[in-house]
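Protein modeling request. Please complete all fields; requests missing the sequence field cannot be processed.
Requester role: graduate student
Desired output: 3D structure, token encoding
Chains: 1
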Amino acid sequence: MDGLRGFALFGIFVVNSAMIASPYQALGLPDPAFDAPVDAAVRWFVACVFETKFYLLFSFLFGYSFTLQMTAAQRSGAAFAPRFLRRLVGLAVLGLAHAMLFYPGDILLAYALLGLPLLAWRRLDPGRALRRARWMGLLAVSLWLLLGLFILWLPGTVDDATAYRTDAQAALAAYRSGWAGTVLQNTREWAGSIWWQLMLVQGPFVAVMFLVGYALGRREALADPWREPGRLRQLLLIGLLPGLAGAAFYATTALPSVPISWKLLGLAVGLATAPLLSLSYGAAFLLLWRSACGPCLAAWLAPAGRMALTHYLMQSVLCAFVFTGWGLRRVSAVPPLGVLVLVLLLFGLQLLLSRWWMQRHVHGPVEGLLRALTLARWPRWRRTPVA
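Delivered output (387 residues):
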């Protein structure tokens, strides 16, 4: 689980960094500073391989960890609901601060709110939870596909991006003005549109993956997922081709050169097929874990996964320092390929930091604070030195 969480953390970093680096990218517009073919190719690659996939893995792991927390509370004789509610309050506070200070596309507040129905569903048997997840997913996908087709069919659909360009230019000015302008712009974007878009677009699928993670957690599916390696290969192949096809369609319609009227349908197709590709990613990762690459993955990704919340917030802080008024103000000044290289470098540093920190501590810094709030007592912080 820790290794898979570290893997998902990297994918989320790639997507979020691109959004922070350029308000044009966040709005699906061509950045006037970077309109070369290589820039379009990098944007297409990031959209196809990373966007709409890795938050699903993270959400699945949240649901799976929910069952482990239930077991831990039962083992200690503590009431689970108050514990989990305190945890959700902590996530909500972190999410609000994260969105307003550093990155308005924060997911933590959504996790906190969608964790409430997950708590209410904690007595569902795994089979019923999976059926509920299936119907919720089908309903959300159907509504988005119908809306995308309707917009495409609607007579007189206007592909005018003038208002979006005005918004992007205003964001550029704010992020280059200083930290106060950055906070004001983040707050304005989060409250004005991003929060509602996130809940409508990602929210239903986060809830679906919470349920899937809960069901498989109840079945202890990750305790020994290699009992049937043929099943993992089957899952990889089942999701790969339709997932890649949908991702390619989504990435192509997301290109700035494609009319706006096609973008919603592309998003709908991407949302419909992203769970399949996420399934393939997870199966491929588990197969690699038992290959010759396994020890290397465990050594580097598992420590990062154990402090994923700390790293998730740190990634936004680092990007805000590079691109916004919190530091260097290089917004819309680094090409997409440069942003991708920067992510690789920063994530490598995070992996090094994770190994150093987890050799000395039981929890990551933010994880320890959240655990203290969850348990209503200060947890053990440092590891006992080995003689």
